[in-house]
Amino acid sequence: MAELSGAPREACGIFAVWNHPEPVGLVLRGLYALQHRGQESAGVAVRTPAGELAVERGMGLVGEALPPERLARLRALAPDAALGHVRYSTSGASRLENAQPFLVRLHQGASALAHNGELVNAGRLRRALERRGSIFRSESDSEVIAHLVAARPEPDLGAAFLEALHMLQGAFALALLGPSALWAVRDPYGIRPLTLGRLGPAVVVASESCALDAVGAEPLGEVRPGEAVEIGPGGLRRLRYARPQEGDREALCLFELIYLARPDTLLAGGDVHSFRKRSGRLLAREAPAAADVVVGVPDSSLSAASGYAEALGLPYEMGLVRNRYVGRTFIEPEEAGRDDRVRLKLNAVRPVVAGRRVALVDDSLVRGTTARQIVDLLRAAGAAEVHLRIASPPFRFPCRYGIDASKRGELFAAGRTREAMRAELGVESLAFLSLEGLLEAAGESASRAGAGGSRRFCTACFRGDYPVPLLDDEEAAEPGSALPLPPLRLEEVS
């Protein structure tokens, strides 16, 4: 189960603004809207009209990491641009030195970097850079990007940044704030989301469109896969710096739609809530349950649960109540802490479930470490039967693109039959939405899933078909210290 049973842990959220009279407050509002993407640390970097940069970072939720006195120090600089970040660790421990944005002093000028995603070749690049004399202050793969920029001979920060991108393999949505411009970049497959907005004369960059709504910005559309957007005194310039090796294939992470993004976010040509509701309806078509009531697991599963109930003509009720003052369970890096929080954050509504056959709908089943606790909650409240329905396929393959589920042994569905999973979870029945059904909910022809896979989404966690090959950093051949780069080719985008 996503939120409650060892959820997939997404790396972070990015929010930035250029040319605004009060960028600190604006970024703070954007980070609050993106808090669901990371709860371990938060930070804000600012740029002054003179091109000077400063940063404040801290551990915990946005309000804890960035108290008023820290924000006051940034506001005192009278900045006109700012870059913010919220983080959950998928690469590097949960410590302050890994918090972002990173502020680095390069020979091209000072810059602040924020990263969402994960690089599959970070270990190889880090070792090559260390042999050249680079000194790392963090364990995060994001710092590798800053050192790659520093290693470039180009005197211009933007040119060095674009050149360094060609060394990166994996998933990355990046924002780089420099003395004279703000850059926003997505990897060639667009695995992680990034979107643009306008607020009067200001340009805004955010991981999700819900953050644009939070500040009243007008959406300008997504940063395209393989695109670099330069935002500076001359306005907004879009460059296509790379294309996927497989032509124009895109590979947006399906878990953004299933679980990670907020329901009010616009993504992949539609809103996340509608996608989840369609997935629930299709789940009902594929796996109807003999139930008296449908209950969704708060919060990311509620849309799918309502669609499931509507399709079957069953009552949909609030059978589980969430304590909203306890953060998502994936904030706990240690498994014991996550399990202990389940009963603190959820309680069953006895009058809704007592003596009834319950169809429990959740968006995903990843680690399965506390799914039985949810079932136990319903049993203790008197549920006669529990039929578990998952609005996505079994998560069988590890992810190295920014979701902290990188070991197959951690995945509940890996190596288990559906009957074995059902018995271990202690439910009367268990069913998953098919990949064809999931892609249909996302607006893609179901036939593609059976004939080579999706051309718009990454399905690696379900099928093992990785768009960017995974590298074993320990066994892969060591690269040379020269870090050779292919020639940079830029294409103006209208």
How is this structure best described in words?
It is a single chain. With 494 residues, the protein is α+β, with helices and mostly antiparallel strands. It folds into two domains: 12-250, 4-Layer Sandwich (Glutamine Phosphoribosylpyrophosphate, subunit 1, domain 1), CATH 3.60.20.10; 256-458, Rossmann fold. The chain has 17 helices and 24 strands. The strands form six sheets. It has a seven-stranded antiparallel sheet with strand order 3-2-4-1-10-9-11. Strand 15 and strand 16 (270-271) form a beta hairpin. The longest helix has 15 residues, at 272-286. It is globular and about 70 Å long.
Mean pLDDT: 89
CATH architectural name of the largest domain: 4-Layer Sandwich
Query: Which overall shape is indicated by the principal axes computed on the Cα atoms?
Result: globular
Count of strand segments: 24
Describe the sheet with the most strands.
7 strands, antiparallel
CATH class wording of the largest domain: Alpha Beta
Return the CATH topology of the largest domain: Glutamine Phosphoribosylpyrophosphate, subunit 1, domain 1
* End-to-end gap: 42 Å
- Name the strands of the widest sheet in spatial order: 3-2-4-1-10-9-11
Structural category is alpha+beta
Instruction: Please estimate the helix content.
Output: 25-40%
- Helix count? 17
CATH superfamily of the largest domain: Aminohydrolase, N-terminal nucleophile (Ntn) domain
Number of domains: 2
- The low-confidence runs, each spanning 5 or more residues with pLDDT under 50, are 1-6, 328-333, 473-482
